[in-house]
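Thread title: Can someone regenerate the structure for this chain?

I was given the following input by a collaborator and told the matching structure tokens would be attached. They weren't. Posting the sequence so someone can regenerate them.
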Amino acid sequence: MVDTGHRNAEVDRVPGRADRPRLQGLWRAAKAAEWKDLEEFLLARALEHDAPSVLVRLACEYLHSVRIVRPCVVPLLRAVATARERAAAETYSRLSPLLGASRQAELDGLLIVRPELAVSRWAWLHRGTTTASPMAIRAELDKLRFLRELDAHALDLSVLPDARRWLLAGIGRRSTNQALQRREVDRRYPILVATLAECAVEVLDEVVQMFDQALSGTENRARRRLDELLAARAVLGAEAGPAGGDAGGGHRPWCRTGRGGLRLREGIGMDRMLAARRDPKDRLPRDHGHLAQIDASFTYLRAFAPHVVGALEFESSEHARPLVEAVGVLRELYGKGRARSPAGRSRPLRPRGPRFLPDLSEIIRSQWVPSCFDERGGTL
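Best answer:
Regenerated them for you:
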């Protein structure tokens, strides 16, 4: 019988010199054809990853997958360095249709210090904001208009892998204008183009986010002021309305006997009833005065809203199409400096349908009218 432990030890042992002749038939040395395939593989990977350590690891994994004996470290590092140089040249070659003489002059102008800004346009574009104030929003809109003048939003960089674009944009964000000026041409312009395209997207997202924060802040401040006014109104109503308690609590059968007016005049008195009566002009609108509180911040909104509405294009689904049309009317009013909408352009922003809330007046009419009036229309 064969010892089981001895057999397992034979199976699990590490191959040694006795196994080399058998393994030599499965692995082969790297020759000219294998080196060429490795260089093409490294070029494709270098377009996505620029770190030498990552490329060396990927090269070793590739050699292991195709059963090629790993060469010495020095030739392998030389192949990685060559792949990185070829990747930079390939990047410049793919972007050369976008790098005409005028485009190169515009990109070089970004690195020059402007006296009116005291910094270069490159540093100005990467200068972030800390608050969503009207001045900060208008400053971001200036950046957006400048980028659109350079057609940064229309740059087509689909010829490069996504990882390469992100790599170039990251280098551009971390580099100063002096460091970029010292770089070679075939490395400087791809970095500038990729960073400019990414900057156009980032500035647009920043404008939308700051615009939303400013509007949300105005809405929240209006709600807080409205809550304070409603609380003060409730206190005044409680002080001026003790007359209702003198009419008798609990069930009031005299309300249906026709003696309600006499009971009110005798029990409360006309003077107290007139004092407790609220002036019709002082009655709250349907929104309880929420829009009036927002109107109090109209000067603040006018400091940035017309500029954002005029600079951005809004799209929506079919159900929110009236809202986009209202924004178009608002853009037209801002452009002409008018305060009223043209005749025939006012229409409800909330369409009727099962997906929307019913009219508040319909709810009041259906629930409260039967309890306040009889079948002939008289008061109960």
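The first helix runs from residue 4 to 12.
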